[in-house]
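User: tokens in, sequence out, please.
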């Protein structure tokens, strides 16, 4: 390692006090400067932070945005979400490959460009989309690729690609993003004109226990999909004896088809930060963390500026709004491309500078979370509801929605529809009503809740979006009658295989077997017994996996088997004579032919033909 690189690494570690708990920040800084984190860099970082190289290497290898091999000066990350595929992403990828002379996963010989596929980047309402370093480019076509590369070769700066910026704060000088908010239906709680700090002021007029009681009375439930009562979570954290407590906002919305948090972070950051501050006051926390997914790094400078303005306005920091007994501040922790970090214990591990692997439970985060202290983890939408509840009162919030699902819900609608975007709806609306609003006239299947949710058919469009019926983290992906629903299920299984942390065998291996079983059926080689096998294996994965990823990964297969039984029936058939349709002797002999370096006289029908 040359002296200049060593100096850069030493500076990165010093900027974070050589603290191994800030490993993610250190690695981001080194990756940005050197375009990789190689073995020598890992050794030096380990020495400076008082840890072991194997631990540093474990973190580097876990996150998709870090690499031990040099990336190009410009890294092009093509979104490979199924919505992007249907919008023409494959043609766009081929245009990049042809123009650059490299395939996804490769770097050009001159080190100028790297080309990669990446899962959903939160732009499904304007697909196909791509991240070029931290610059988002949407609505791509093969023709646009030529202009993009011509500009990049000339300027070597992705920022020069930015033309007309999007609406709202997307045109802010610290954002400058070609991203549209696509707010199709604003609502009374979140997407409305309201002063977020009136809720904070109202909260500080109450005692912490009164704030918790107000949140409990509102019946606010977590908007991440599981729906755990927010007030109960806060009370558990407040009642756990501890010298320190933490509030963490989960802004790692990696669920394919979800982009609602992107819009809230762009247009309502003050509402979110006020919600985090109220949560901190209620549970007795002095420190907060916004865990921001790496795909949204283009928003970081804007969010940092918002935090700084709030400090100057005495809305963060010491003695908030004149309360000498209440101090609270927030730092931003960048993620680095790992879907599993949307699970709260994995997110906490990442904040601690570790691999984003889930923790064993119990204890739960509200008892022992970040650095072993009681920790409240809520997502962006949940925390953004809190200031409005404090401002308008729990009965107002409870008056919207259904008996078991109070308030409103943000929906990210994308896919085969005329009006993709964000819809704020009261809980209890039917799928059919949403499809009408979004202009999905030929919808044949709907993904409710993203990859971990359910895929339902036309017979279920009467069902309501609420915790009592169809619970959803917010993603609604529409598929018209021209789409192959089994291909959609296979895509989601590929996603789970790729995003599994690999810690537990049921998830690491079981999902691979599920995908193979599905492929067997898709190839016309399935038998009725295969359906029983898929159900049994799914039950095992759900029951024995360590975290939420494994608990929900079989859903694409289970829900399509439930709601599209005729599709499966048409693909499977009884085989006479005890023959296995899925056994291909020629394929089975391929490995033996390679090892023996010759063909089979008995089993090779082409034996004797010229190679």
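Assistant: Sequence out:
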């Amino acid at each position: 390692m040359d002296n200049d690189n060593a100096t850069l690494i030493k500076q990165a570690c010093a900027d974070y006090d050589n603290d191994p708990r800030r490993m993610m920040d250190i690695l981001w800084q080194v990756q940005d400067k050197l375009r990789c984190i190689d073995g020598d860099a890992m050794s030096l970082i380990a020495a400076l932070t008082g840890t072991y190289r194997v631990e540093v290497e474990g973190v580097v290898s876990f996150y998709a945005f870090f690499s031990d091999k040099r990336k190009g000066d410009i890294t092009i990350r093509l979104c490979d979400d199924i919505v992007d595929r249907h919008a023409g992403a494959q043609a766009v990828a081929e245009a990049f490959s042809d123009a650059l002379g490299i395939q996804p996963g490769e770097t050009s010989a001159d080190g100028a460009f790297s080309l990669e596929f990446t899962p959903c980047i939160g732009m499904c309402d304007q697909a196909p989309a791509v991240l070029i370093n931290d610059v988002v480019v949407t609505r791509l076509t093969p023709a646009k690729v030529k202009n993009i590369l011509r500009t990049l070769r000339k300027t070597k700066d992705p920022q020069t690609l930015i033309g007309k910026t999007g609406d709202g704060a997307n045109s802010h000088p610290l954002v400058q993003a070609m991203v549209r908010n696509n707010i199709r239906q604003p609502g009374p709680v979140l997407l409305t004109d309201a002063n977020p700090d009136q809720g904070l002021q109202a909260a500080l007029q109450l005692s912490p226990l009164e704030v918790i009681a107000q949140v409990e009375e509102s019946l606010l439930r977590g908007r991440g999909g599981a729906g755990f009562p927010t007030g109960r979570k806060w009370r558990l954290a407040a009642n756990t004896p501890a010298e320190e407590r933490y509030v963490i906002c989960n802004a790692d919305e990696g669920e394919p088809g979800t982009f609602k948090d992107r819009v809230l972070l762009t247009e309502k950051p003050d509402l979110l930060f006020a919600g985090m501050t109220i949560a901190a006051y209620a549970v007795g926390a002095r420190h907060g963390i916004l865990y921001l997914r790496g795909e949204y790094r283009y928003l970081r400078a804007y969010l940092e500026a918002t935090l700084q303005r709030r400090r100057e306005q005495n809305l963060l920091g010491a003695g908030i709004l004149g309360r000498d007994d209440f101090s609270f501040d927030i730092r931003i922790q960048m993620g680095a491309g790992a879907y599993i970090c949307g699970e709260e214990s994995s997110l906490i591990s990442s904040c601690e500078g570790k691999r984003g692997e889930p923790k064993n439970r119990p204890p739960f985060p509200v008892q022992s979370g970040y650095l072993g202290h009681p920790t409240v983890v809520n997502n962006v939408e949940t925390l953004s509801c809190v200031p409005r509840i404090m401002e308008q009162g729990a009965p107002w919030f409870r008056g919207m929605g259904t008996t078991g699902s109070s308030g409103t819900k943000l929906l990210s609608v994308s896919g085969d529809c005329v009006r993709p975007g964000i819809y704020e709806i009261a809980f209890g609306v039917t799928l059919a009503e949403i499809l009408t609003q979004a202009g999905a006239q030929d919808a044949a299947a709907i993904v409710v809740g993203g990859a971990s949710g359910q895929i339902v058919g036309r017979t279920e469009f009467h069902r309501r979006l609420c915790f009592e019926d169809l619970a959803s983290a917010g993603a609604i992906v529409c598929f018209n009658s021209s789409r192959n629903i089994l291909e959609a299920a296979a895509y989601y299984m590929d996603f789970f295989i790729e995003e599994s942390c690999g810690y537990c065998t049921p998830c690491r291996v079981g999902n691979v077997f599920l995908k193979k079983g599905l492929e067997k059926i898709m190839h016309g080689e399935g038998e009725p017994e295969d359906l029983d096998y898929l159900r049994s294996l799914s039950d095992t994965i759900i029951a024995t996996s360590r975290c939420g990823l494994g608990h929900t990964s079989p859903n694409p297969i289970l829900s399509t088997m439930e709601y599209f039984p005729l599709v499966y029936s048409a693909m499977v058939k009884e085989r006479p004579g005890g023959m296995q349709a899925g056994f291909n002797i020629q394929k089975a002999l391929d490995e033996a032919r390679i090892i023996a370096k010759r063909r089979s006289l008995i089993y090779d029908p082409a034996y004797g033909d010229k190679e």
